[in-house]
Amino acid sequence: MRVMQVAGPGAKLEQAERELRDPGPGEVLVRVQACGVCHSDAFTIEGGVPGIEYPRVPGHEIAGRIEAVGEAVVPWTVGQRVGVGWFGGNCGHCDPCRRGDMISCVNGQVPGIAYDGGYADHVVVPQRALASIPDDLSAEGAAPLLCAGITTFNALRESGARAGDLVAVLGIGGLGHLGVQFARRMGFETVAIARGTDKEEQARSLGAHHYVDSTGTDVADALQALGGATTILATVTAPAAMSAAVGGLRPRGRMVVVGASTDPMQIPPFALIPGSTGVVGHASGTSKDSEDTLRFSALQGSGR
Ligand SMILES: [Zn+2]
Ligand SMILES: [Zn+2]
């Protein structure tokens, strides 16, 4: 089979031939039909995560069809359409796993990092990593929903916001354009926040009720003028933009951070105290959460 691999940290992607291997116990062989390209693939290409064994094939937004199953694989069958996202398997025996919190597994696996990913004709993955793809979603449509999609979908549905609440999506890029669609279709009063006016038309066509240009307006004031946000989904990778929006939360509101930056965020503690507001991170979700994301997207026509 053909793969696009990275020979070592910092090396260019190169095409190579690999032997197809049979799936072992608990594993399935998937014929890849589409694989999204995610910013986090750079971890593999640039060597940003310690312990990656090279050569390595990146890719963790995989959509395809099961071609073979190993021993003890239940209930997945040959021919089934499946997706594999950031959640590429868990150990089942660490403390978080024993509590049923599989996305927090301390030995969690990510395709393209822990094992070869989807920049290939085939992948072999643990059955724990599989999500079923609904018939009415194309492979190309499903693939990006398995990382950017589930991240925003799951963060929003677990944010505590309820139907009709004001929910703001900070940043209208790869994550944010999905976040706006999910927020609207989950029944929230949806605010899109981005730099400049270029994204306004797109944001409104994706479902935003309101648009805030962060270069021309104080974002916190703009959100307060709308009543204050129950949830701000922060998809930008600029911590300063997150800090500037925290004041837009209504009492007991939460900023949910999914924009991955290693730079520090500065927030005066007093900004959080009077309204008992908070800033929390959110880690993607499991393969079952991915499946929910795909089903919701097919049902609601989101994820374009
Ligand atoms: Zn990703
Ligand atoms: Zn575990």
Explain the overall architecture:
The protein starts with a strand and ends with a helix. The protein is built from nine helices and 13 strands. Helix 5 links the parallel strand 8 (166-170) and strand 9. It has a six-stranded parallel sheet with strand order 10-9-8-11-12-13, sandwiched between helices. It has a five-stranded antiparallel sheet with strand order 6-3-4-5-7. It has 304 residues and is α/β, with parallel strands linked by helices. 23% of the residues lie in helices and 24% in strands. The chain is elongated and about 60 Å long. It binds zinc ion (2 copies). The site of one zinc ion has 8 residues, from helix 2.
Write down the overall mean pLDDT.
96
Order of helices and strands: EEEHEEHEEHHEHEHEHEHEEH
| Classification by helices and strands | alpha/beta
Helix content: 10-25%
| Rg from alpha-carbon coordinates | 20 Å
Distance between the termini: 30 Å
Low-confidence stretches: none
- Strand order in space, largest sheet: 10-9-8-11-12-13
Portion of residues in beta strands equals: 15-25%
Q: What count of helical segments does DSSP give?
A: 9
**Strand runs, count:** 13
Bound molecules: zinc ion
